[in-house]
Prior knowledge:
The chain is an alpha/beta fold and 318 residues long. The protein contains eight helices and 18 strands. FE2/S2 (inorganic) cluster binds next to loops. It holds the Pfam family DmmA-like_N.
Amino acid sequence: MIEVKVVTLRLEAEGIVGIELRAADSSPLPPFEPGAHIDVHLPGEKTRQYSLCNDASDTSLYRLGVGRSATSRGGSAYIHENLRLGDRLTISEPRTLFRLSPEADRHRFIAGGIGITPILAMIRWCVHHERPWELHYCVRSRSHAAYVDELRSFGGSVHLYVDDEEQARIPRDVGMMMRNMDAGEHVYCCGPGGLMDAVAAHGEQAGLPPERIHFERFAAPPAETRVHENGSFSIVLARSGLRCVVKPEESILECLERHGVQAVSSCREGLCRSCEVALLSGEADHRDYVLGADEQEANKSLMICVSRARSSELVIDL
Ligand code: FES
């Protein structure tokens, strides 16, 4: 855990506050990769994940952009209403689940709303390393478009799609955003679920190999679209030998907590990978948004905050 203080707060666009954090003791912060995020611990035992959007070579500070969520469970609302200059916060070390592919010759970015934040750090890297890139950035209105002047100053190709000016046309526009792709070009998408689903569907339709499309989710899909069939199953902790039954209405993580076992977790929505545990036997029913299809198929680990079991028992490395 790192203690930081808030050194800058500014409005980047309507509903988006920009925050700069420096280490409380003024030491350099841990290095990070473009696309990385940190956990920010907020009052009331709330933990939220925010992407770092500054230049990854500058470890004197971390820059975040926080969008005010209409469905805020207290995280973004606290930041928008209560956070003040000089406040101290505890954050995690940066983690990277969304990264630039070393295989790519060109990078094509598709961002929706606050999904621009990890992409901004990636574009800074491309500019710094003189790699070709282009950005397709979808916003609700021009007043909601954060960082546009900065993005345009980088000299790359920036396409802005403004919903209230040209009618929302996703997924039709996604075809346009993804046309004329070079063989070595990769796509990186971060934004609302509808945009990411449209990009995934278009990529599949266009025969783009899944390893050339990279996604970062910052919210789980709405509850009504998630899998709901939950049965009970047994979980065995290999190290302690503890065996317990996970009830249909609880997660493995909650079951462990009910038995006094404190496991690491953060988002509790299958988004951040902090609760990943090695799976020693049994077959998982993966319900996270971070493991790739190949990792889910390999069945070597699972996110205990959301995933369940296809077999009657799972043995995990805890
Ligand atoms: S706590 Fe974030 S994936 Fe489980």
